[in-house]
Amino acid sequence: MHLLIYLFLIITVTSCAPAPAPEKLRLPEGAGQLIVKISGLRNHTGELFVSLFSGREGFPDDPDMALINRHQPITGDSGNIVFDDLPYGDYAISLLHDENLDGRMNTSIVGAPREGFGFSGNPKSKMGPPEYDETRFLLLIPEKKMNIVVQYETVGRERQRIMQERKSTGAESKSD
C-alpha cells in the first residue's frame, strides 16, 4: 500500500512540474556593420534622430532605453546612419525626423504625428507605433544594409487613400 502511495506521489509531482525553459537563441560570436539608408524625407530641415534597441524595453518611444542613439543633420532627400562594430544580435530601429529640433515627436491634439517617423522593417502604418516584434531583425553577417522609409501623418494619409480608392472605384463603375 505504501508503495502505491509513493508511486502516486511521484507521478503527480513529476506531471505537475513545469516544462523546462526553452534555451535562449545562441548567436555566433562576432560583430558587424549596420548601414541604414533613410529615404522619403519631405524636407531638409531639422535632423534625424535614430534609436537602436536591443530588446523590447522602451521601444520605440524611450530613447534612454536604446542601446545607441544617433543624431544627424539632414543634408538631402535621404541619409545614411552607420553602426560600426555592432555585436551580432537581435535589434530594432525607430527614427524621428525632428524638423523643429525640439528633441521629441510633435503630435496633433488627437495624437497624430506631425513629424516624420520610421521603423526597421517598414511596418504598415496603423494607429499607434508598432511592436518590437514587428520591427526586429537579426544582425548575423559582417555587413547588413537596410532601408527605412520615413512616414508622415498617417491618419490623413489613410483617409486620402480611402477617398482616392472610392473615387477610382466610382469612376470605373460609371465607365462600365
Give a short summary of the structure.
By secondary structure, the chain is an alpha+beta fold. The chain is 23% helix and 31% strand. The protein has 3 helices and 8 strands.
Labels describing this entry:
176 residues, alpha+beta, Immunoglobulin-like, 3-stranded mixed sheet, 3 helices, 8 strands, 23% helix, 31% strand, globular, disordered N terminus
| SS-derived structural category | alpha+beta
Q: Note the gap between the termini.
A: 86 Å
Count of helical segments? Answer: 3
The average pLDDT is 83
Proportion of residues in β-strands:
25-35%
Give a description of the structure.
The chain has 176 residues and is α+β, with helices and mostly antiparallel strands. It has a single domain, classed as Immunoglobulin-like (Sandwich). The strands form 2 sheets. Strands 2, 3, 5, 6 and 7 form a 5-stranded antiparallel beta sheet that branches. It has a 3-stranded mixed beta sheet with strand order 4-1-8, with no helix packed on it. The chain is globular, with a radius of gyration of 24 Å.
